[in-house]
Amino acid sequence: MSVAVDVKTLVIDGINVSARADQTVLEVARENNIAIPTLCHLDGLSDVGACRMCLVEVKNSPKLFPSCVLKVEEGMEVTTASPRLKHYRQTILELLFAERNHICSVCVSNGHCELQSTAQSQGLTHVCLPYRNPSLPIDASHERFVLDQNRCILCTRCVRVCAEIEGAHVWDVMGRGIDSLVITDLHDPWGESSCTRCGKCVQVCPTGALSDKSKFGSDHPKYPETVSYLNMMREER
Amino acid sequence: MPTYPMPPLPSDDKRWKIVNGTMRRHGFARNALIETLHTVQSSFGFLDDVAIRFVAKSLHVPLSQAFGVATFYNHFSLKPAGKHTCTICLGTACYIKGADNLMAAAEKRLKIKAGHTTPDGNISLMTARCVGACGRAPVILEDNELVGLVEPQVMLEQLERWAAHD
Amino acid sequence: MTSEELVQVAETVTAERQAADFEVNVCVALGCLSQHSDKLKDALCAEAVASGRNCRVRGTGCMGLCAAGPLVRVGKPAEAAAQTLYAGVHEADAREVIESLGNKPVERLEAHLDTYFHGQIPIVLENSGYIDPEKIDEYISRDGYQALIHALTEMDPQSVIDQIAKSGLRGRGGGGYPTGLKWSTVAKAVGTQKYVICNADEGDPGAFMDRSVLESDPQRVIEGMAIAGYAVGASKGYIYVRAEYPLAVTRMTSSLQQARRRGLLGNNICGTTFAFDIEIRLGAGAFVCGEETALIASIEGMRGQPRPRPPYPAVSGLWGAPTLINNVETYANVPTILRKGAEWFAGIGTEKSKGTKVFALTGKITNTGLVEIPMGMTLREIIFSIGGGVPNGRKFKAVQTGGPSGGCIPEEHLDLPISYEALIEVGSMMGSGGMIVMDDTSCMVNVARFFMEFCMTESCGKCIPCRAGTAQMYQLLTKICDGRATHADLELLIDLCDVVKNTSLCGLGMTAPNPVLSTLRYFKHEYMEHIEHQHCRAGVCACGRKPANELALAGVTA
After folding, report:
1. C150 domain residue, yes or no
2. DSSP letters along A155-209, please?
3. End position of a domain, from candidates C439, C467, C488
4. Statement to judge: residues C150 and C234 lie in one domain
5. d(CA C60, CA C129)
6. What does the pLDDT read at residue C152?
7. What CATH number should be reported for the domain holding residue C382?
8. CB–CB of C461 and A91 under 8 A?
9. The predicted structure's pLDDT at residue C504
10. Interatomic CA distance for residues C233 and C521, integer angstroms
């Protein structure tokens, strides 16, 4: 008997769930209203497993796996929340807050920031690590948008949306390690680059690193959900 | 082989033909980027915007992606090197054998930090993360020539010789 | 080439060698070359001609003892074991050396290294120093390519994999993954195009085993890769060499050409339907590219950033195809295993760690160089017997293995028989083979900080724990070295070690805390001395130095 659609059953946080064979643990968890924090993941973009926020425990393995790329397997037993995972997620957030200069009170994304809301949902109240206070530039050369490196968490959503959805691949990352920076073209000012002005990168950016100049002094909610619709429409063609 | 319009060679400089040769040998495949940047680095001594743009356009690689690759790897330099280069190996064996003293002495004498060139463009001071000659630690490279079991005095004498030939 | 043709070539080469009364072998690998052994070779040639004696001067690969170079071995061609080894030979000594042939050896140049070579079992290094690495025929004359021809003509791919599995060979790059299992995974993976990659990035500072093999016996690696290609069903191989090894790149390039000319690479190898060729790809100075998925990204022409695993390269690797990645040393073992048999190999070593391992013995040790020892030999024997102990009357403190992913092993574990498991148990790891000896002039906190700085600057930047975590840990270690740290800083450091170790994306981040954890395990007193008394007992760190009796008054417990 042939199997048309491969279906798997697994256990997440003690709950029995079913999944298609090609789904990730994150997808299935969200379908079943089990919350797993993410930062670099965005529906509609490829997953890179970079931020390590979505790490889950899998029974019979000492390792932790990023649920955004972990494909489901029959009989898998996954734990998405535990004191250990909570501590790791909080430390990763602390590392981020201490890495660059995230000052919510003067940021245009205050109240609409995924870094902020994730910290709140993870119960982060203090940053115990020393702040690095690096000196980072702002690029306001673009007529509509601003890049503030101080607020960037190097999630690379901007790189991926520009490469995969817009197809222009204007953004990429230069340098290595903690000195990495997102740049346009040959580290040209954004306004002078091959940017098509579509604005998708601003919409997918989880923080105030990429922002719309017209939103200064007012609210700056973002609408990254459009990306998964764009993707769907392209795939249908 | 490419079916999109190819950029012209940036100038009459014969070295561009060598760079083009590397790309041709790889069928102008996108994955030839690093090999080609190697050719540019060894032909010109560094990668400038013109070179990166030429290679990126020839291989149909986005500019930012090419720039990202060029700046990721230690071997590629975006700045021209000095007339002479002194590379001090900071691998573990060399470090245990006193490479940090060599580095301190060199920085003091040249009045520049590692990774930079003297203002007159004469001498560049670089670090290497192990050139694999640990049996002769501590090791330095004087213009690509390997010198082992180096005492600070010996290295400083070579730096003096280079400085004197200004 | 057929088996008979190989034998013919071997006989020709051997006959040529034996036609000379004497041979003078000069090491022209990197260590000795840097001391102008090429000029020495020319001088010896000139003297040989001038003397009118029937002797042949040739360049060979590494003879092992790099610190004592340039090395020259002389004697009768037929009596390899009885040949005399000279150390520290220079151009001016050329005439004396030639005149000494057949007579009393030159005493002041003679290297008395019986203890150095005693106990070593050369498999990977069996040809190093005995053949001219730039002549494929010399490799053939020492049973080279017999294994490949035998595999292609008399074995099927599964039998080859079975032999490797039975031998117990484990990845020599550091992970120690069972090689036979890896090969069989790639063989079974679905895909019409498969690849074989040789990881010659050798990023561990303090390790130069792979460089030496590539410079001294390159054909061996080619043969190993071709056998692997046959076993897993791959038609294309890549050797990813780091840019810092230009001599290895040149030698390997010419070796590949020679192999092609002899029909040992390309289409219809040895008259069979097997086609396999190898291309060299250059690294460009990134330690992270030693990691399998980052290496693949680099060959694909991109930034060398690792990818989450699963999927593993064996199933989906280079350009999404099933890819076998093994270290240089792993491939170098393959021809000998097939020639001498899996049982023979499995007879060497311990129960779970079979065969030999090449170590680069460096640091504060008398005999610096490459050694190939059977698994199970103790650290004490390697360091004090083969290595000749710590020079200048200083006291042994620790031996560092595994590079920036490893740890420091103190005196109490010197009688440890070397194996993958044993090294992990004491808080270190096998790694690629770097073995750095430290004496009491090394500060262990400073050493931990050195490795953390390395990991921080080599971090690719993709994942947060490694990118930001190593930077924070480096800052904390600097604070401790400078005598500005508190106990709370140490607690924070230990906590960060746990987070970075368990949440990082790839091996670089996961093992970056190891040097800190291992030095804390055995040398916590040094950390406490830095924190509580701003004292560095080795006299290395920037913190204020207090004399020992003041410490005693303060009641410090070591």
Report:
1. yes
2. --HHHHIIIIII----EEEES-GGG-EEEETTTB-GGGSS-----HHHHH-SSSS
3. C439
4. yes
5. 5
6. 94
7. 3.10.20.600
8. no
9. 97
10. 46
Q: What is the reported pLDDT for C544?
A: 59
C246 lies in the same domain as C331? yes
Tokens of C474: 């480096």
Confidence of residue C555 (pLDDT cuts 50, 70, 90): very low
Is the pLDDT assigned to residue A129 strictly greater than 70? yes
Q: Which candidate, C404, C433, C421, places its Cα nearest to that of C519?
A: C404
Cis check for the bond before C404: say yes or no (omega within 30 of 0): no
- Residue B111 to residue C145: CA distance in whole angstroms: 55
Would you call C370 an interface residue with chain B, using a CB distance cutoff of 8 Å?
A: yes
* Average pLDDT score over residue span C36-57: 90
Task: Examine the domain organization and report whether C430 and C456 are in the same domain.
Answer: no
Q: Are B7 and B58 in contact (CB under 8 A)?
A: yes
Claim to verify: residue C259 and residue C305 sit in the same structural domain:
yes
Same domain, residue pair C450 and C427: no
Q: Does B115 touch chain C (CB under 8 A)?
A: no
Q: What's the gap in Å between the CA of B96 and the closest CA on chain C? A: 6
Interval C361-378 mean pLDDT: 93
Chain C within 8 Å of A169 (Cβ-Cβ)? no
In-domain check, residue C365: yes
| Domain assignment of residue C39, given as a range | 20-115
- The C-alpha atoms of residue A31 and residue A20 are separated, in whole angstroms, by 12
Beta-strand pair C22-27/C55-60: parallel
For residue C551, what pLDDT is reported?
Answer: 46
Q: In the beta sheet, which residues pair with residue B77?
A: none
Radius of gyration (Cα) for chain C, nearest Å?
Answer: 25
Mark which of C298, C319, C346 sits at the end of a domain.
C346
Provide the CATH number for the domain around residue C246: 3.40.50.11540
Chain A's closest residue to B67, CA to CA, is: A186
Residues C186 and C283 in one domain: yes
Number of domains in chain C: 4
Same domain, C292 and C242: yes
One domain for residues C415 and C471 = no
Residue C249 within a domain: yes
**Shortest distance, CA A163 to any CA of chain B (angstroms):** 9
Q: What is the CATH number of domain B84-164?
A: 3.40.30.10
Distance from the A158 Cα atom to the nearest Cα atom in chain B, whole angstroms:
13
Which chain A residues are within 8 Å of C310, Cβ to Cβ?
70-71
This model of the complex carries an ipTM of 0.95
State the Cα–Cα distance between residues A183 and A178, nearest whole angstrom.
15
Chain C CB contacts of B93 under 8 Å are 205-206, 362-363, 434, 436
* Among chain C residues, CA nearest to A153: C464
**Inter-chain contact A185–B71, Cβ cutoff 8 Å?**
no
Q: How many B/C residue pairs have CB atoms within 8 Å?
A: 143
B40 near C CB under 8 A: no
B116 shares contact with chain A (CB less than 8 Å): no
Q: Which of residues 117-136 of B touch A (CB under 8 A)?
A: none
Confidence of residue A173 (pLDDT cuts 50, 70, 90): very high
